[in-house]
Backbone:
């Protein structure tokens, strides 16, 4: 799961919180970009941006840990799967509506053609 | 060979327009620019005169600046797809053929005056007689206003017949050296695809449902709900949307809306389509978007949808990252994976030129101009003989259109800024793909070992 990777990075950053001055500087530079400020240029700016994004995740993770609600993410994932299922079922209902419409059309045409025999 | 009346007519129209072009360019003495402009204009008039198939073809040409002469692209872009409306009786007949019932038997009311009339379909208003439970979204109670999009009778046959003719003509035009060397077959195949799709409105209805679902959590994006009970191949019934088209936003309309927020929102919504859903509205057009009095964006017309796999999305994110962060090498490396093959001996020069283009067009001063950059990039590739895959060109063009739409709401928007967080996030996520990790972690590990034993 790709979202897990961001969590992984965030967790890594959390456990290394005091360690890496270079990373902290990158986060500082990058957070300007994430907030929609003017970006610096070049490949390094991209790393800064990524670092800032991971740092945001880190803060979220910290809050989650503090609140003891780390399992919440999986509930979200479940919701996505259920939503997809709900949509598939809803689409089937749409098909049935369409078929029902077709039946009504056939009926209307038969009635117009004259009274049914039998 | 059988020459049909239609075929003769088409040839006659082109001959007439060609002569007019010769006249307007002062028999070729007016200079190259003048000649090209004059002929482009005549091509457009010929296409408009020849009807639906040619109008659609013209629209396709208008989004291919990298393949067709600039003058022609500009002319085709102004071609309007509006034709004189069919009388209501004709539309009523189609409804009766499709449903065996009159519009009054199907709906509480039906409006004989069309809302819009385009080359393939005509749109009429109606009111629901019963509650309708759509595939996605809230129930539409009886009394809800809807529209019926009805395919013009004979449109299918006319279009398919003209398609064959168009193939013949484009081939002839190429033999006469009137068009640059280009992938005609891809163009015509795509054209046939889009026309055939448009002739079955159920396809569009399915896409509308899917978009409604994709944007379910998004109160700012609206998609018309489909009434499947009264939808067939030739008739699409959907919720009626009210608002202003981006093309006719006047000052009064602008007063009532938050242009800046909507522009950013609309551009963000597009990035989400491309980067997260992998399904994007490739037929975006200022006339297909409404801004509503509720300060939301409503999408209309789901004719052409681009599809992207997860891997493609990641590669696109990398290309965009290359653009956002002005890293030409990255942009090209990942473009390669999307089918843009720069021959090895040209990589250096193309990278350098792309770098220059990035610096001049997407430098940090003021809002950056993606449209000019995108078109410049495509023509740079062309100039070096690099073939551009259809999907790649379509995406660049779609991004440019999004920028255009957003600018009509808020002239200072910078869509590269809008793209940045998406790009960064998607790349961040893709770094964790097992095969990538395996490869990189091992390399990093070896490097570390080498450090240690040094
Ligand atoms: N759901 C709708 N509510 C209100 N107007 C609509 C709706 N759908 C289409 N229209 C009107 O009809 C016009 C043409 O519809 P569109 O779907 O773009 O047809 P085409 O694909 O033939 O161009 C739109 O520009 C708009 O004015």
Residues:
């Amino acid at each position: 799961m790709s979202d897990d990777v961001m969590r992984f990075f965030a967790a890594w950053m959390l456990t290394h919180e005091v360690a890496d001055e270079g990373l902290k500087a990158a986060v500082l530079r990058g957070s300007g970009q994430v907030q929609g400020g003017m970006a610096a240029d070049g490949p390094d700016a991209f790393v800064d941006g990524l670092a800032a994004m991971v740092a945001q995740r880190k803060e979220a993770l910290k809050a989650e840990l503090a609140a003891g609600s780390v399992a919440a993410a999986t509930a979200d994932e479940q919701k996505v799967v259920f939503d997809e299922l709900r949509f598939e079922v809803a689409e089937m209902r749409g098909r049935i509506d369409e078929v029902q419409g077709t039946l009504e059309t056939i009926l209307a045409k038969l009635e117009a053609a004259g009274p049914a025999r039998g | 060979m059988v020459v049909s009346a239609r075929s003769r007519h088409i040839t006659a129209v082109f001959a007439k327009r060609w002569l007019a072009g010769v006249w307007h360019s002062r028999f070729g003495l007016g200079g190259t620019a003048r000649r090209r402009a004059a002929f482009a204009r005549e091509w457009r008039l010929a296409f408009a005169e020849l009807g639906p198939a040619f109008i659609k073809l013209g629209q396709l040409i208008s989004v291919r600046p990298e393949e067709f002469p600039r003058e022609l692209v500009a002319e085709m872009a102004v071609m309007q797809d509006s034709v004189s409306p069919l009388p209501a009786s004709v539309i009523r007949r189609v409804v009766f053929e499709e449903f065996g019932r009159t519009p009054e038997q199907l709906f509480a009311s039906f409006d004989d005056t069309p809302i819009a009339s385009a080359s393939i379909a005509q749109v009429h208003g109606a009111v629901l007689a019963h509650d309708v439970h759509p595939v996605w979204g809230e129930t539409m109670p009886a009394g809800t206003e809807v529209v019926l999009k009805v395919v013009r009778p004979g449109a299918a046959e006319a279009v398919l017949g003209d398609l064959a003719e168009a193939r013949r003509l484009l081939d002839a035009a190429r033999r006469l050296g009137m068009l640059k060397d280009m992938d005609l077959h891809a163009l015509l195949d795509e054209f046939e695809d889009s026309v055939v799709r448009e002739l079955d409105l159920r396809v569009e209805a399915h896409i509308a449902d899917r978009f409604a679902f994709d944007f379910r959590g998004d109160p700012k994006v609206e998609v018309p709900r489909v009434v499947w009970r009264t939808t067939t191949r030739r008739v699409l019934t959907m919720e009626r949307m009210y608002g202003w088209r981006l093309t006719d936003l006047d000052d009064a309309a602008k007063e009532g809306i938050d242009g800046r927020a909507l522009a950013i929102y609309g551009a963000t919504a597009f990035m989400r389509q491309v980067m997260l859903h992998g399904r994007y509205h490739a037929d975006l057009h200022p006339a297909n978007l409404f801004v509503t009095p509720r300060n939301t964006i409503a999408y209309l017309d789901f004719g052409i949808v681009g599809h992207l796999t997860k891997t493609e999305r990641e590669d696109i994110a990398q290309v965009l990252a290359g653009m956002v962060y002005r890293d030409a090498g990255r942009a090209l490396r990942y473009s390669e994976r999307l089918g843009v093959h720069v021959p090895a001996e040209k990589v250096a020069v193309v990278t350098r030129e792309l770098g220059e283009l990035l610096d001049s067009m997407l430098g940090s001063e003021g809002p950056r101009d993606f449209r000019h950059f995108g078109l410049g990039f495509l023509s740079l590739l062309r100039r070096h003989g690099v073939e551009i895959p259809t999907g790649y060109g379509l995406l660049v063009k779609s991004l440019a259109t999004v920028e255009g739409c957003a600018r009509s709401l808020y002239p200072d928007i910078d869509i590269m800024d809008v793209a940045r967080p998406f790009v960064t996030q998607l790349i961040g996520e893709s770094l964790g793909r097992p095969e990538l990790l395996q490869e990189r972690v091992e390399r990093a590990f070896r490097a570390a070992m080498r450090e240690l034993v040094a």
